[in-house]
Amino acid sequence: MKLKNKDIIPVNTVEEYAALFGCPPICHPLLSVCRLSDVKDYSPIGKPVRLNFYTITIKDKTTCNASYGWRSYDFTRGCMNFFAPGQVHCWKEKTANTDRWGWMLAFHPDFIRKYPLGTKIGRLKFFSYDVREALHISDMERKVVENIMENIENEYRQNIDAHTQDIIVSQLDVLLNYSERFYMRQFQTRSSVGPDIVTRLQVLLQRHIDKHCKEFVSVSALANELNMSSHYLSDLLRSLTGMNTQQHIHAFLIERAKSLLATTQLSVSEIAYRLGFEYPQHFNRLFKSKTGVTPLEYKNMN
Q1: Buried b (16+ CB within 10 A) or exposed e, 32-45
Q2: Sign of the torsion formed by the C-alpha atoms of 137, 141, 145 and 150
Q3: What distance in Å separates the CA atoms of residue 299 and residue 260, rounded to the nearest whole number?
Q4: 291 in helix, strand or coil?
Q5: What 8-state DSSP symbol labels residue 191?
Q6: Which CATH superfamily is domain 197-301 in?
Q7: Strand positions, DSSP E, 8-92
Q8: What is the pLDDT of residues 193-202, one digit of tens each?
Q9: What is the pLDDT of residues 57-95, one digit of tens each?
């Protein structure tokens, strides 16, 4: 059954996430860290939810049936799951969290945007639909993850100061470095699967931007690259994520624009041309419609 935007519950902030899933009140506006044993409950059950930030879940031996895009995954051992902004999830049943080992970690892209991790994270495949299953961790790997999460948690619970974000981002970077190592170990012992359509689309968009084509990437061009008609591609993406091809293009360009605005000295016009906009005013209009502020206002804020 195809997902429609009206059927999907958008969760745009970390605070909304904490409230929705029964986590303790957040200690940082862009970050939530909580142990599963502290999670009271979550809702809604059986309804698709789009989380517009990064999330990492770390769990012990338990079972939790959930749908990830259009697939299902089961947690039967100690494992980790990684989700990028914009992905759709649906929880089919409640799971008791009493005495459970694990953490729920959520962070907004703005939390890491100014750091090298903000660029690196887009290249980590385990945040995409390309990976069909959770990262299952051994007892030794579990100890490594536990030590890092305790460091993040301890810093998160402290009063926020000038060093808080730097320290937590550095720990996140270490966690993801180890996760990448664990995934490579897992892929050596498990059958790999080909990339799905969402991942292939993201790769094409990134390739287009990296080439500095200075022309707006079109739906038809992407469909041709994927050997599909434009209508079929949009219908397929909408059935998987609730967003059509054009919406995926806009979301990608906005995230890329935010990074350029926050980390470079390029002018708004230069960024517009680099992203393929023929006229900067078209870029300004799209950016404000998606973020609520103009590109210049966003650049000044960062």
Answers
A1: bbbbbeebeebeee
A2: positive
A3: 9
A4: helix
A5: -
A6: Homeodomain-like (1.10.10.60)
A7: 9-11, 31-35, 49-51, 54-59, 66-68, 71-73, 79-83, 87-91
A8: 334 788 889 8
A9: 998 865 454 554 444 544 345 788 898 998 887 777 666
Degrees, nearest 5: CA angle 9-10-16? 105
The model carries a pTM of 0.69
CATH 2.40.50.100 assigned to 5-189:
no
The tokens 């030794």 sit on which residue?
140
Q: What are phi and psi of 58, to 5 degrees?
A: -125, 120
The one-character DSSP state at 259 is: H
Q: In DSSP terms, which residues pair with 33 in a beta bridge?
A: 105
CA–CA distance from 137 to each of 37, 99, 127, 143, 266 (Å)? 20, 19, 17, 10, 42
Residue 146 C-beta-side C-alpha neighbours within 13 Å: 13
